Amino acid sequence: MSWPVVTLDSIKANVPYACVGGPFGSNLTSQHYVDEGVPVIRGQNLGGPGCFDESGFVFVTPEKADQLRPNLAFRGDVLFTQRGTLGQVGFIPSDSKYDRYVVSQSQMKLTVDPSRVDARYVYQYFRLESTIQEILNRTITAGVPHINLGILKNFLIPLPPLPDQQAIAEIAQAYDDLIATNQRRIALLEDAARRLYREWFVHLRFPGCETVPVKDGVPQGWTKLPLGDVAEITMGQSPESKYYNTDGDGLPFHQGVSDFGHRFVTHEMFTKQTTRVAEAGDILCSVRAPVGRLNVTRDRIAIGRGLSAMRSRAGRQSLLFYQLGALFVEEDMIGGGAIFASVGKKELFGQLILQPNADIATAFDRLIGDIDRQIDTLDLQNRRLADARDLLLPNLMSGQLDVSGIRLPEEVAA
Fold this sequence. Notes:
Layout (H helix, E strand, L loop, with lengths): L4 E3 L11 E3 L16 E4 L16 E3 L1 H6 L4 E2 L4 E4 L7 E3 L9 E3 L3 E4 L8 H7 L3 H9 L11 H5 L2 E3 L3 H41 L11 E2 L2 E2 L3 E4 H4 E5 L8 E2 L5 E4 L15 E2 L5 E2 L4 E4 L7 E3 L4 E3 L3 E6 L4 H11 L17 H5 L2 E4 L2 H41 L10 H5 L1
Parallel strand pairs: 3-8, 16-21
Antiparallel strand pairs: 1-10, 2-9, 3-4, 5-8, 6-7, 6-9, 11-12, 13-23, 14-22, 15-17, 16-17, 18-21, 19-20, 19-22
Helix pairs in contact: 5-9
């Protein structure tokens, strides 16, 4: 099978302002923002793990929103980033918190004809890597890189019959729902680990604390040690750029936080020349802006100047991860530089860490290690789900696979 290919302009609804951008110029500025009212959709509300992030809104008054009627978006609309992080897309679900939104100057919205098109299908199509790349290929580079309404309206999309669109959207949503469930479980586990760390090492309510004297905030038998004494630290060093590639040749290479995930790095760049290496399981800590951002590598990787790799000298890697999280509770807390915030070897190695006695350290590491393994398992499940979804959807949307023969991921898992 193959589906007809149509422009977005041809599938918009027959209503005023079906495909529009945000307000122009001074019609909407930060001076118009208020504490509550009608929310303004910005880039941070798009492109995340869900179809639409309803946090971090700024607002305008209902009266101002009435003046911006051509720039409003509603439930069921598809949203696109016009400038900024190009390729971001969102979809306002039917159960969203508000009944109307203002589209910012950097966004565009599309209202589709519901008799022909399922908006969820359009949203999923614009999440495909191939579609995002096509958007980037069409970027206007003069001034701030951007796309415009003309480019958006002329974008081509395969259009199956409406029942097939609905089935494809439901399959994609089933994968997304499973991923979101795992993300919520990960968040709960991480919160439990952080609470336990604060209980034991901030409030000093650790097992047996009733009988341990505390002097100057340090329990007897504990000590404050330089980070360099607690962890083996490798400072990154970048190889020559001529050895970089995206073909998977050599070791994965990271020199900053661009490929940091929520907890685990993903690999985009590789290098055939290796200078400094992080081993599987090492904690990666950024030493240039933003200083102190943490991730973990599952693989042996090469690291450049923007990163350090750390491993507990006592083999208590889970404890070290949460110690570092407490040390860098706010990014860029240490370090300095003429242009970018940064931290040098001496300053990093000298950061003091509250180190418990061996029994408490081992007990905490064992408890949190179990939680970390659960987080690792859930994250791997999400990566497999995302990979399966991203392999499946292009074939369904192109008509190469018959949607009627596809099982939902819950059924596959069962």
